[in-house]
Specification:
By secondary structure, this protein is of the alpha/beta class. The chain has 15 helices and 14 strands. It is globular. The relative contact order is 0.08.
Length: 478
C-alpha cells in the first residue's frame, strides 16, 4: 500500500499539508540472513547470487518539519486445517500424530525422524472419565512421551486461573514450541482455555483442537478465537490465534447427553437462518432423528440419507465462509453474531441454568420477533422458525430475559461495536442482513409480542401437562 501525503501528515503530530512532507515507500528483502529495505521499484543488486527473500511487508517513511515517522504494513499469515476423521483414538489412526502438518514432504520427514514424539494433552475431566484410558492407550501404543492434564472446564471455571494452571504444567513438561503442539480434548470451554494458554506460552505455541461436543464441533473448533470469562463477563479476555488443526470425530457425540445435542443444534440453526435454507430444511425435517441418533450415521435409516453428515458439513462450510475472510474481526458487521447480542448477558446472568446454545436460541427467538415487527419476516416464516426451534428441543423464552436485561445487553453491544448495533436479522428462511436502525419502539413491541406468544404458550402447555408429567427443557422457564 502506498503511503499517501494525507496519511504521512496525519502520522506526524503538528504536520500539515502545507509543509509538503517527503514520503518514501520501501520493500523489505532478506539477503542470506539480513533484512534490508530498498525503495519500491528499485532493483536489488546481488552480485554474489545469494538467496534472496522478498517480504510482503512494507515500510512507509514520512519526513516533515515536525520530524519523521514510519508506517508499517505487515500482513499476518495463518494456515490451519479442519479435518473430518473417525475413531481418532484408535492407535492405527495417526491423525493426532501427523495430521496437523500441511506439507506432505514435512510429514514424511517427521515420520522418518528417530526423535521421540512428545505431546502435552489437556482434557476435560468429564471426557477423561469417558475416554481417558483410550487416550493414554493411544499415546502409549504409538510410543509417544506424553503428559495428560485433566481439568474441570466449565463456564464457572473458565478463568485466567485455569490458564495459568495449564501454563505451569506446560513449563514443567518443557515442550518444543514449534514441533510439539498442545492438544485440547473437550468441549468449547476447554478449547477456548487451551487456545488462550497456547497463544500466551512463548507468545505463540501451536495447538490442536479435538472437540467432543456438537457445539464445539461446529463452532469453537473452526475459528480463531479463544478466551476466558472476566469480571462476570463472557470471554472478556482473549485473542485471535487459530489452532494448527481441528480434528472432527463425530463418534465422541455418542456419549453426550441429549440436551448437549440440542445445545449444539442452536448454533447450527443460527447458520441455517442466516444463509442456508437447505440446512434449515434439514433441521426442520430431520431434527428429531438427529437428536435420537446423536449425529451418528446410521445406514439402516435410508430415508434420512446421511442427515448427520450433511448437517455438520454445511454448518462448518457456512461458518468458514463467514470467518475466514474476517478472522480477526476487523469488520464488525458479522452474520455469525446472530443470537449473540443478548445471549452473553443472559447466559452469565443465569449461570449455570442455560447452556450456550440454549441462550443463543432464546436470543434468536426474540430477534425473529424483531425481524417480524420490522416487516422483514413474514408471519409464516416466523412460525416455521419457532416450530423448528421447538422441534430441536431448544428453549424459545426464559424468565431471566427481561426487557431491562435486553436494554443492558444492547447498550453493551453499542459500546463494543463502534457505536452501532450491527444487528443481524433474518429477512426470510436462509436469508439475512445487518441493520443499525432498529428503533427502541420496535424492539419493545417485539418484546411484548414475544413474551405474549412464547411465555403464554409455555404456561398453557405446562398447565395442560399437569403435575404428573415433567416438561422437557424447551418448555421450562428456568
Amino acid at each position: 500500500m502506498l503511503v499517501t501525503e494525507e496519511a504521512c501528515a496525519a502520522a506526524v503530530p503538528g504536520a500539515t499539508m502545507a509543509q509538503e512532507p517527503r514520503q518514501t515507500d520501501f520493500q523489505l528483502v532478506r539477503v542470506k540472513s539480513t533484512w534490508s529495505r530498498i525503495k519500491k521499484g528499485e532493483t536489488l543488486s546481488n552480485n554474489n547470487e545469494d538467496e534472496v527473500t522478498l517480504s510482503e511487508a512494507t515500510i512507509g517513511e514520512c519526513i516533515s518539519e515536525g520530524g519523521i515517522s514510519w508506517i508499517i504494513e505487515a500482513p499476518i499469515y495463518f494456515c490451519y486445517k479442519v479435518v473430518e476423521t473417525y475413531n481418532i483414538l484408535e492407535p492405527s489412526n495417526t491423525t493426532l500424530l501427523w495430521g496437523h502438518i500441511t506439507d506432505p514432504q514435512q510429514t514424511e520427514l517427521a515420520m522418518a525422524s528417530k526423535r521421540k514424539l512428545r505431546r502435552f494433552i489437556v482434557i476435560d475431566e468429564v471426557v477423561d472419565k469417558l475416554y481417558g484410558s483410550k487416550v493414554r492407550e493411544y499415546f502409549e501404543e504409538n510410543n509417544v512421551q506424553h503428559k495428560i492434564l485433566a481439568l474441570p472446564t466449565t463456564e464457572e471455571t473458565k478463568s485466567m486461573d485455569l490458564v495459568l494452571n495449564i501454563l505451569h504444567e506446560v513449563q514443567s513438561f518443557s515442550l518444543d514450541r514449534r514441533t510439539e503442539p498442545i492438544i485440547a480434548i473437550g468441549g468449547g470451554v476447554c478449547l477456548d482455555i487451551v487456545g488462550l494458554a497456547a497463544s500466551l506460552y512463548r507468545r505463540r505455541t501451536p495447538y490442536i483442537r479435538v472437540p467432543t461436543t456438537l457445539l464445539s464441533y461446529v463452532d469453537a473448533s473452526v475459528g480463531a478465537k479463544n478466551g476466558v470469562n472476566f469480571l462476570q463477563c463472557k470471554n472478556k479476555l482473549g485473542g485471535y490465534t487459530p489452532p494448527v488443526a481441528s480434528f472432527l470425530d463425530r463418534s465422541f457425540l455418542q456419549s453426550i447427553p441429549r440436551r448437549h445435542i440440542s445445545n449444539g443444534l442452536g448454533e447450527i440453526l443460527k447458520m441455517a437462518l442466516m444463509k442456508h435454507k437447505g440446512l434449515f430444511d434439514l433441521l426442520k425435517n430431520h431434527g428429531k432423528y438427529l437428536l435420537d441418533t446423536k449425529f451418528q450415521s446410521c445406514n439402516s435409516f435410508a430415508h434420512h440419507g446421511d442427515a448427520a453428515l450433511q448437517t455438520t458439513r454445511i454448518a462448518i462450510e457456512t461458518m468458514l465462509e463467514e470467518l475466514a475472510p474476517n478472522l480477526w474481526e476487523d469488520d464488525l458487521d458479522r452474520l455469525v453474531d446472530f443470537g449473540h447480542l443478548i445471549s452473553p448477558e443472559l447466559e452469565m446472568r443465569v449461570l449455570p441454568s442455560l447452556m450456550h446454545g440454549e441462550a443463543v436460541n432464546i436470543d434468536m427467538a426474540f430477534m425473529t420477533y424483531v425481524a417480524h415487527a420490522r416487516g422483514l419476516l413474514a408471519t409464516e416464516d416466523k412460525e416455521q422458525i419457532l416450530q423448528c426451534m421447538r422441534g430441536l428441543e431448544l428453549p424459545v423464552w426464559h424468565s431471566g430475559c427481561s426487557w431491562a436485561l435486553i436494554q443492558t445487553a444492547l447498550r453493551e453491544r453499542l459500546k463494543h461495536s463502534g457505536g452501532q448495533l450491527r444487528m443481524p436479522l433474518p429477512t426470510g428462511l436462509g436469508m439475512a442482513d445487518i441493520f443499525n436502525d432498529t428503533s427502541e419502539e420496535t424492539l419493545e413491541r417485539a418484546y411484548e409480542l414475544w413474551v405474549k406468544d412464547c411465555k403464554t404458550g409455555l404456561e398453557e402447555e405446562l398447565q395442560a401437562q399437569g403435575d404428573s408429567s415433567a416438561p422437557s427443557l424447551s418448555c421450562v422457564p428456568l
